[in-house]
Amino acid sequence: QKEVEQNSGPLSVPEGAIASLNCTYSDRGSQSFFWYRQYSGKSPELIMSIYSNGDKEDGRFTAQLNKASQYVSLLIRDSQPSDSATYLCAVNDMRFGAGTRLTVKP
Amino acid sequence: DTGVSQNPRHKITKRGQNVTFRCDPISEHNRLYWYRQTLGQGPEFLTYFQNEAQLEKSRLLSDRFSAERPKGSFSTLEIQRTEQGDSAMYLCASSLAGGDDELFFGSGTQLSVL
Questions:
Q1: In angstroms, rounded to a whole number, what is the distance separating the alpha carbons of residues B114 and B15?
Q2: Which of B23, B33, B41, B47 to mutate to test the interface with A (most CBs of A within 10 A)?
């Protein structure tokens, strides 16, 4: 079992829609969870971090964490074409999922 | 400070040759990570340092791979007897222990083994 698993996608949503990205992890003791965005040909950059169960909102982005279900998600509201990228889930700052490629169509 | 710096940006080598990459982290960051990334995959953890101590190394990492961080500043990643399967983007990242754990990535070194 992979340590961090993500829906491989690709995920395509129309502009203005909500994009939902999901991630599960295997280490029940994990404490830190991160979402990174990686544009094609670029390095990953941090979008959000979350440490406690529940929701955390930052602008159009909402991270959701459920430690009992070992599940973390990222919602992107009012999706824009500029959000088109690969979204990487990371756990405990070291282990990354394979990423989900998101395309937002104008 | 302009961020994490990696050199070279590109490296083409023949199978069987040794290669070495360098990473200069953000100056006040005491943690340094090496990852390998292939097309369509997420970054694969290779190893991590806190200051000059190598605290973890991936179990999947071949003994042809070695990393150092002398004096807790820059780091080097060496691959001996390269194989075609080593072709990938090698990413370095740094962070500040005790901070919010955000990783700052360099631009990477693209290795092509012919």
A1: 6
A2: B41
